[in-house]
Design goal:
By secondary structure, the chain is α/β, with parallel strands linked by helices. The chain has 15 helices and 28 strands. An 8-stranded parallel β-barrel has the order 9-10-13-16-17-18-19-20, surrounded by 4 helices. A 6-stranded antiparallel beta sheet has the order 21-22-23-28-25-26, with helices on one face.
Length: about 625
Amino acid sequence: MKQLKLTEYYQGNDIHAYEIFGAHLCVERNKKGVRFTTYAPHAQSVQVIGSFNDWSCEGHEMKRKDERGVWSIFIAGVCEGDMYKYRVTQATGRVVDKMDPYAFYSELRPNTASIVADLDAMKWSDQKWLDKRSINMDKPLNIYEMHLGSWKKNSDQEWVNYAEIADELIAYLKAHYFTHVELMPLNEYPFDGSWGYQCSGYFSATSRYGSVRDLQTLINKLHKANIGVIMDFVPVHFVRDDFSLSYFDGTPLYEYEKAVDADSQWGTANFNLWREEVRSFLMSAASFWIDKYHVDGLRMDAISNVIHWHGNKDLGENEGALHFIKRMNYNLHHSYPGVMLIAEDSSDFPKVTAPTIDGGLGFDYKWDLGWMNDTLKYLEKDSVYRKWHHNDITFSMAYFYSEKFIMEFSHDEVVHGKKTIVDKIWGTYEEKFKQLRTLYLYMFTHPGKKLNFMGNELAHFREWDETKECDWTLLNYPIHDAFNRYFARLGKLYTSIPALYENDYDWQSFEWIDADNADQNLFSYMRKSEQGIYIVILNFSPNRYDAHAFGVPMKGVYHEILNTESEMYGGNVHELKKYKSVKEECNAKEQSIRVDVPAFGGVLLEHKLRAKKGKE
């Protein structure tokens, strides 16, 4: 026991508590075995029961190591793969069998035993990736969000194994120019329908898809293919199941004491983020996935419920929780400077992505839920009425530079009767696809990083169901296959054109050409870099506009490099055009071009800038 380490733990400053707590393979007194350590300050006694002692408690009574509640024991002969639980005689005298809060592996639900696992046996070969990874502020960040259990099933329609899916997943991500994959929670959880967001094992990779080394192998292969890995992390609440954290020692140890604070809107228990030991627990859980699984980012769920009590602004700010999140983000950035911290936050709380030293929460990015809601709300409307809702599209740029946003169409948008992205759009079947292509041109050329949930790239019509794999048969239909190719083309353009990612959060990289043409449902803007100027024209009306004038910043030829109505994507445009500017004032510009804009369509034009000649 390192007293210094426990001091940090009790002070709420420990981000490596898993190095002490949990089940650790080791050698003590020349005997191989496992050191078990847990925290239960109000327990009367704690015993280790498991497969190695026929689940009895004889001879394996844990010893209290200090007055503040740490219990520990070394048991010789215990090996990797052995199952165990803590039999806790709680403060009330009730005896309950609990999983290890720091377990590194667990039984598949509905079983609840913890399993001894060796996390250090993996032979990693991704150091080159780790040395160069960054938070990608001036790099393309194109994220594929996925639920591992329902992306694809195996031949028996069962869950795939972490390692066995690696090669196929990598090839798919590469073909669509995704830079990162975001995995919905892979911590252990008892209820499939919670998708991992109602967690029981914060240090335990779910056994649904294989072993700890299978998951490490998947991530190692992704890194060697230059694909980053983001994992969802839930620092707000946990399951109430009796085998887990809830009333671990018979008292509200991890949850708030008062029910009004502890009871969450999901039927789970809110973490007491004011308690120092809970802070060390959660900070260590976040650090654990970066340290032991080499993840490149954590997307933190329900941060609005950290900022305000129960996520309700009227209930006021949760000062203790805010203090915790700032401390965690500061410590994670200090220890892992190249790892991204991403907030899913529906509040208007300021400075979420500002550094903690400047009074911010310290996240690198925040999902732009406002952009998502406004954009989809606009497209749900009959095109006749869109001119009265023009601001739904233009408003995002009024606040965009207040935070560092990720533009997202996540799993939350395609479940619970909300319809999928394509199905939300007003119009006939064919009109939906025309507008879907234009919507994605808008998304990939709007400032900000990108995230899409699996199935979006297929133009999925069926809402996501965690029990079923994606509808891959859609690719047998020409209109879906064409959209999938179009989506991949957008990914290639986005990741290869610096103007679309390099200075996302610099206001000089974006400029409206015409933000006010509500009557024609037209939007036009430019993205700029030292290499070139890119003109984006979006038409969300059913009318075609031939030779429509748009102002441009300088004279020259503007080449069409994408047309949403190109034949290869399901439209009827046979070839891309080029437009030479003329000296004719338009949109407060001295030069203009006249562009053919398809109905419900969009175009992307490129004007390359000549490199300035410098002296040798």
